Amino acid sequence: MTPRAVDLWVAARGQLLQWVVRLVLATTNLNKVREIRSMLRDAPYELVGLDRFPPIPPPHEDGRTFAENARLKARAYAAAIGELVVAEDSGLEIDALDGAPGVESARYGGADATYPRKFALIEDAMRARGAATSTARFVCALALARGREILFETRGTVEGTIAPQPKGDGGFGYDPIFFYPPYGRTLAEVSAEEKAAVSHRGKAFADLRRFLRDTATHMIDD
Ligand code: ITT
Q: Active site includes 89?
């Protein structure tokens, strides 16, 4: 690992020396940075977003799966920045729409379509197929890269249904129409902690935490 990627952190009492690993999260979505930073808050990692770096041309996310997109983002940014980079690609799969919007989640209805517009398009598309509701899932594929090498990959999902109407103003993106049966609410109606405990991203980043914890010594020694 390059010296820039690891900062030596001395605890306030001056006794405890601890390695703090800097992880770059390959996203321009500040909601994700906030959400993931809070998931890793007790771990010795400093998570920074792409906003900390001079603008880097984004790779073309033309993968056919979430995993392909996560890998291509992780490799592209790790090669450009020269640090440990974690990338994720995520989205919503609606069974009644054969998995749409899927990898197109951010662009569904056009790059400038607002979320209320996306929700209306989904309702129309489901109605056209005679579906009042549908089972659905959020998927998060995660890849960790150094240079062009993928060090770790995982995938997290959360199962739910499409709510009859959008509800709640927490979370982001499709959360207001994602009804999570065990909570009896949409993911926009629950706290950030409740969402992280069950979410696709929460599960994928919990796997990453375990991987980093188990391999941290090797990563620092490399
Ligand atoms: P980056 O590519 O910079 O990470 P992005 O938002 O475009 O930002 P994605 O390509 O992964 O990220 O697109 C994911 C889209 O899927 C996101 O814009 C939301 O519309 C939706 N999405 C993903 N996770 C979500 C979540 O937890 N809650 C609601 N919607 C989510």
A: yes
